[in-house]
């Protein structure tokens, strides 16, 4: 039984909780998943709960459901971090969960917002400024979806012109990357769509300006598409990848904001991005330092590229790095408190060591480091245009 396993488990777990509504049956549900490392250092994932949640989505009700689930699986004192989307009620429940779970360091790493959800918020914000160009394309595809008889005509028309008939992806605002998939696929069929829609629908007109905007914005959206896919992995670590993907996104902002057609859209995306990631959460900074390709010694370079060349804003990189060093020492001390006696080794005392002292170099591996050998290699991304319509197998 999973409950018995977690009762004996001597590590920490990370959980992710999500609440959503079935608008057709008028029910809401809560799902809770759990990730942890087994004894072979392999990432494991388990679904802890999938339950009806028909009460109001208040912080008190969310806490009650989570407390029941955590207690059932005996993990309430073993949770390192919990991931939520950005609903305000989810944020409001965090203090009560910290009181229940007693996480490391008073909860400095406890609350992790869903990065892909933030990406989607940025995309939706930016696309509002391009609605006049994108909406006609969406209207044309909706016409195909709405009429099965028209879909049959479309299939025959594609076959007649030597193209494989497809059902275009639907745009669902809450579904990550859906608008990118829709625009990318429709662009591949733009010539056929223009003539087909022009013949069958009098009130929808697709002009070259629409497709130009589609091409330009797809180049920008592909950066979010790639980041979302890379950070959506289940059986490999993803937290350490966040800052690397953020460099790519910041690079796309830096390049595209000089484009007159995309400037307004990029500005809107960037403003939304800065609401969440003007300063990186602690957990992402620590995870990057634990990535053997990056490590602590490369952190100043990553942050400098991100702030100075990507976002083009002032930021005290030195102060951030000093804070990260302090957190590393605090984590180390916490680890020794829990696992030190069982290791049966001589444990160095770090409590009285200043993070700014020379002994902090113990956190820096000066051997082979793939990325720190060329610490500015991500600058290249900041001077390259995001690719335009890619050739993707989206079906």
From TrEMBL:
Keywords: DNA-binding, Metal-binding, Nucleus, Zinc, Zinc-finger. GO terms for cellular component: nucleus. Pfam families: hAT-like_RNase-H. Its main location: nucleus. The keyword Zinc-finger applies. It comes from the Eukaryota. It is found in: Nucleus. Residues 233-335 form the hAT-like transposase RNase-H fold domain. SUPFAM superfamilies: Ribonuclease H-like (SSF53098). One of its GO terms (molecular function) is zinc ion binding. This is hAT-like transposase RNase-H fold domain-containing protein. It comes from Dipteronia sinensis.
């Amino acid at each position: 039984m999973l409950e018995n396993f977690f009762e004996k488990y001597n590590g920490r777990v990370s959980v992710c909780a999500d609440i959503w509504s079935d608008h057709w049956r008028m029910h809401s549900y809560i799902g809770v998943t759990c990730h942890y490392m087994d004894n072979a250092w392999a990432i494991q994932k388990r679904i802890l709960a999938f339950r009806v949640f028909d009460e109001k989505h208040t912080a008190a009700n969310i806490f009650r459901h989570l407390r029941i689930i955590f207690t059932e699986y005996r993990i309430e004192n073993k949770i390192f971090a919990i991931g939520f989307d950005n609903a305000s009620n989810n944020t409001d429940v965090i203090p009560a969960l910290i009181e229940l779970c007693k996480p490391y360091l008073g909860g400095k790493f406890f609350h992790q917002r869903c990065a892909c959800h933030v990406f989607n918020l940025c995309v939706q914000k930016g696309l509002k400024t391009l609605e006049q160009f994108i909406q006609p394309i969406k209207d044309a595809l909706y016409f195909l979806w709405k009429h099965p008889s028209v879909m049959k005509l479309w299939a025959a028309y594609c076959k007649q012109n030597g193209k494989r008939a497809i059902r275009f992806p639907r745009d669902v605002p809450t579904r990550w990357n859906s608008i990118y998939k829709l625009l990318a696929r429709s662009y591949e069929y733009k010539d056929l769509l223009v003539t087909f829609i022009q013949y069958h629908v009098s009130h929808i007109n697709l002009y070259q300006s629409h497709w130009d905007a589609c091409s330009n914005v797809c180049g920008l959206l592909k950066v979010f598409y790639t980041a979302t896919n890379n950070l959506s992995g289940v059986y490999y670590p993803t937290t350490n990848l966040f800052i690397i993907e953020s460099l790519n996104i910041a690079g796309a902002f830096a390049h595209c904001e000089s484009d007159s057609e995309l400037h307004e859209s990029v500005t809107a995306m960037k403003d939304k991005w800065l609401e969440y990631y003007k300063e990186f959460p602690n957990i992402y900074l620590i995870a990057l330092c634990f990535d053997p390709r990056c490590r602590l010694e490369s952190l100043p370079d990553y942050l400098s590229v991100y702030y100075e060349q990507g976002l083009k804003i002032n930021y005290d990189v030195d102060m951030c790095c000093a804070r990260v060093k302090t957190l590393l020492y605090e984590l180390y001390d916490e680890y020794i408190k829990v696992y030190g006696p069982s290791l049966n080794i001589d444990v160095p005392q770090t409590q009285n060591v200043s993070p700014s002292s020379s002994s902090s170099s113990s956190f820096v591996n000066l051997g082979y480091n793939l990325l720190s050998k060329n610490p500015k290699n991500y600058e290249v991304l900041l001077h390259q245009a995001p690719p335009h319509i890619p050739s993707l197998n989206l079906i």
